[in-house]
Amino acid sequence: MNNYNQVYSRQSLFYKFKQNIRKYYEIAKINFKLQLIWRFDVAVNMMFTIVKILFAYILWKAIFGENNLISGFTFNSMLSYYIISSFLSGIDMSRSTSEEICNRVKIGTFSKYMIIPIDIQNYFFSKNFGMTFFYLAFNMLSAFVWIFIFRIDFAFTSNPVQILISILMIVLGLIFMMQLHFFIGILSFKFIEISFFRMIVDNMTEFVTGTMIPLVLLPETVVTIMKLFPFYYTTYLPSMLLIGRNSNEAIQGLIIIALWVISFFIINKIIYKRMRVLFDGVGI
Asked: I need a surface site. Which of 68, 131, 225, 263 has the fewest CB within 10 A?
């Protein structure tokens, strides 16, 4: 009888797990298809990716001048870094999470997320991943177009382990950014208007993730401090690994970003549970 109960319990857990995966997959798939409606947004996102790379080309062409190396970068490896980092920042759709939560709380329709039989944090993760996968192809196309136009001798590592770690780090980095914006979004329950928080995060992340300039150009003390925080591992380090640099930081970086993701997942669970009772909106 005990053996039967154990087998039944395992089957029941597996069935629930399978059902949850299917639910999150459907959410991601629906939001993937929804992006087809917003064609102008897709075009703008591609344009921003292209403009970033163009500005980087003009700026670093002038900075390099007659120099062959700057902080260990050649001109081609610097452009390769910018192409990869611009691509990664272009597929990060996490900002929409805080924006949607804030708007829903303000107009009183966030209650629709409270009644659906699904974990709210995982719901927004799935929604964001659906959007990310849609933009993935278009931003990759933008990157390849610029490699072809500028005839860049694209620097890319041939180490399969380094590539695998980079991909894992990119996925964890995207999850962390979603968690961060989910956290900012649920602050709306207490502060209603969170534009100030979003403005700080939006402006700060451009710099601390290395999208604006490679962090290796900063003072060593500053870089050492940044290594304690997750932003270092969302864009900068994966980009460096993919161009064949900073391989000594790969394993450590993967562990650190994984710990931040786990920590923020727990923090968001606790904060959401406490904050949601402050919501008094109505309607769906």
From this structure: 68
